[in-house]
Specification:
The structure is a homodimer of 457-residue chains.
Chain A (H helix, E strand, L loop, with lengths): L4 H10 L5 E2 L2 H4 L17 E3 L4 H14 L3 E4 L16 E4 L6 E4 L4 E4 L5 H9 L3 E2 L12 H7 L6 H4 L6 E7 L5 E5 L11 H5 L8 E8 L1 E2 L5 E7 L2 H14 L4 E6 H11 L9 E7 L4 H16 L4 E5 L2 H12 L1 H6 L3 E4 L9 H15 L2 E7 L4 E8 L4 H20 L18 H5 L1 H14 L12
Parallel strand pairs in A: 2-4, 3-4
Antiparallel strand pairs in A: 1-2, 5-6, 6-10, 7-11, 8-9, 8-10, 12-14, 12-15, 13-14, 13-17, 16-18, 17-18
Helix pairs in contact in A: 8-10, 8-13, 13-14
């Protein structure tokens, strides 16, 4: 049904002044997230609630009038999970920014609008640490992290978002406010509903509060950077390392991304290398040096052309920052289609080689960076949007890379989510029965289908 | 509906010879699990399938004839999750025992009938480790571990079962065979269905295969044992320790359990202590000694009466084994009602004190052991089943301990599951809305309500 101005006015009236925005000049910045979904349209309105109760008001109204609602965090999503659809209201959690750290229970109770970096900073004030660290941690919100079950660089040792979510407060499609889980480190009372909502991309409810587990502060890290003449040699090294120890970071960059980062940062990376690994150890005391030494030996055994190590945390952080800068650096070369495919670890070389083949066949540049220790890669497909033929080839490559990952027993998305851009490939991964199972759960929780319609399903 | 012998015969005929057992002498041992639910009845039959397809045959038949099915692992459950109900067929997974370890991908693909200890042993052959370690690890099955999201002693550092389940193969109520997740370390494609099934206690499906994440072998552990003149002093120590480092074990025993274990094992434990902590560090190399030293200082600062440390792994293992032996040791004193309540860490002293008060008021012995670092306690209520008045007082205490945990912001079950014995308390913990949400998911996945009816809901 189409929402009339009168109906929209009832929502505006039910919310505090200024909560509901209908100014088209403002709405335009809520059309889409970083995935820049070409199908995005102007939403009817954007609600910017500051409390759970205001989110409930929106959802009750949306249920009554069957209005699609698009939950939105910081808008840094890369799969089109926050694309505005026709006739929708966007619910932006950007103004829900309360946080309370309880250092004795070692938890942070946070509202979804906090940035990941702000949660880390608040924990650090108490000598504690919230590990999950998407490369975008300075601009992505914790609500979005929960919605996508976000990963990051330290996940290879410390796990992903779901491993740190003890409890959630969620507003369901009909406006019901439920509290799932609690500040208990172990809790098996009832179904694992907290975990079901983590990663549900706003299709089952809107998270208005999360209780996050914190751990003692991370010790200073030692860092290794190694260059390789082949992708295979780097991938072999990854397998050798992960079998013997647990690095706190194990990242991969290919020749294209090394060059792009070096162009931007001029830090002396080896442009002639086909692959580079950045590995870190945060083992305490002298053990970090031992772990770095074991990893350096693994690099040398696989024929690394250069191995550099440092126990200076700042110097090491510069290399981690270089890796995190890879996406913006490659983006200078053109528009990006950002992939997020993962494979079982031993298939990593086959994936990277297959991507290179697709790049050649489709004649588009594909830079590859990877959370190598997790088998999770981010092929960055570079194209000129003014060149329609190239853009089409880029989109074909985008699909072919997912097909390739699936053929290797992999996943179409390791940490960004399915959103709208990848949902055409989801049935190929999950199969008909699991899609049907997913739909049954969606129907049970959102029978009118008003929560983020078109995402995932 | 009541199942006639003819209908049961159709199931027997559809399964391989010997798969379906109806001999009452055999059935009697499938009536109940270790919770010894007094409401248990003789099942109609027990199916002991060896393949997923045989489980599908049972579920299709059960759907057609609306027969309740009770999934059963090793029968070591402590909440009555496998209690046989009237007119049911028990599906025991004990004969599904295939395992394949892939050391390069660092996974084990296991069938549910394997014991936890067998999975650990198979991983160890490749220098790898499956961490979750319920005290019953030598007799509990991995299928049961998945069904209850089992915990254990090393979980304080390494997490619980759900943290290690990458994929599941599940037979749904209607016999559909679905594969959820896969051998990818990061995977956010679609809803977190794998995590929904972990801990669902057989109410949503029957797990016929699990893909488990393995990590490099645990380094040898150093161990600390400390005695305290008060529970509060021990609890203070737990908070001091967990705020600064991550021990690989942090266990608590009260005076009663110390005495019971000492009676049985005669290893020189301090019977006069009100509380004992057993802590371990598996940090590599010299760091273990450092961590043990930090923990010893914390014990001393809290006024520990005795602190013993050892870097001999066997000597340390003897103390861990003593802790694991606490339940059998206390069981020598009478019948047990086994609790599993957890609280936010700072509430641990209040919980232990409150339990002592309930013990005094109800005049029943309650021994308390705890995975202290997780705030997860196991009060063991000891009673003489021949003494009806005492048995009644014990059951009252059982409920009061859960009420106490809830009043402290805790959970009625940290790692054993709700099963049937605790479900009366579940609404008090979850609230009406979350119970309704749970029921909606149950209805969506098991519309006829044939999977483990009466468990959880």
């Amino acid at each position: 049904m189409t929402v009339t101005d009168d109906v929209l006015a009832t929502l505006a009236a039910a919310l505090p002044q200024g909560c509901l925005v209908t100014d088209p000049d403002i709405l335009v910045s809520y059309r889409q997230d970083w995935a820049r979904d070409p199908d995005a349209v102007l939403p009817l309105a954007v609600a910017r609630p500051t409390t759970t109760e205001e989110v409930q008001v929106v959802m009750r109204w949306a249920t009554e009038h069957r209005v699609p609602v698009i939950p939105r965090g910081a808008g840094s999503g890369l799969s089109g999970g926050a694309t505005a659809v026709a006739g929708c209201v966007v619910v932006s959690t950007e103004r829900m920014r309360r946080i309370e750290v309880d250092p004795v229970t070692r938890i942070a109770v946070v509202e979804p609008g906090l940035l990941n970096a702000e949660v880390k900073a608040a924990a650090a004030e108490h000598g504690l640490w919230y590990p999950p660290d998407p490369s975008s941690f300075e601009m992505c919100s914790i609500g979005g992290n929960v919605a996508t079950n976000a990963g990051g660089l330290c996940c290879v040792k410390y796990g992903v978002t779901t491993d740190y979510v003890l409890a959630l407060r969620v507003v369901l499609a009909d406006g019901t406010d439920v509290r799932l889980g609690g500040p208990r480190l172990k809790d098996v009372a009832g179904l694992s509903l907290t975990k079901l909502f983590v990663g549900s991309e706003g299709t089952l409810g809107i998270v208005t509060e999360a209780t996050l587990r914190l751990i003692p502060a991370q010790p200073p890290s030692s860092t290794l950077v190694a260059s390789f003449a082949s992708v295979q040699a780097a991938a072999d090294t990854v397998l050798a390392i992960t079998r013997t120890l647990r690095p706190s970071m194990l990242e991969f960059m290919d020749r294209t991304s090394i060059g792009a980062v070096e162009d931007a940062l001029k830090m002396g990376l080896d442009r002639t290398a086909e692959a580079m690994l950045i590995a870190r150890s945060d083992a305490p005391g002298a053990i970090a040096a031992e772990e770095i030494s074991v990893m350096a030996d693994a690099c040398t055994a696989s024929g690394a052309s250069e191995v550099f190590t440092t126990d200076d945390p700042d110097e090491g952080e510069a290399f981690a920052a270089a890796r995190r800068f890879a996406i913006p650096a490659v983006e200078r070369l053109g528009s990006l289609l950002l992939e997020d495919v993962g494979v079982p670890l031993p298939k990593l070389p086959a994936l990277v080689e297959g991507i290179a083949a697709i790049s050649r066949e489709r004649d588009v540049m594909v830079a590859v960076i990877a959370h190598a220790g997790d088998g999770n890669t981010h092929p960055l497909i570079v194209f000129d949007p003014e060149d329609a033929a190239m853009a089409e080839r880029a989109h074909l490559a985008f699909g072919e890379i997912m097909d390739l990952a699936l053929s290797l027993g992999g996943t179409i998305t390791g940490e960004h989510g399915v959103g709208r851009l990848k949902k055409a490939w989801l049935p190929d991964q999950l199969g008909e029965d699991v899609m049907e199972l997913t739909q049954r759960i969606k129907n049970a929780l959102d029978p009118l289908g008003i929560l983020n319609p078109g995402a995932i399903l």
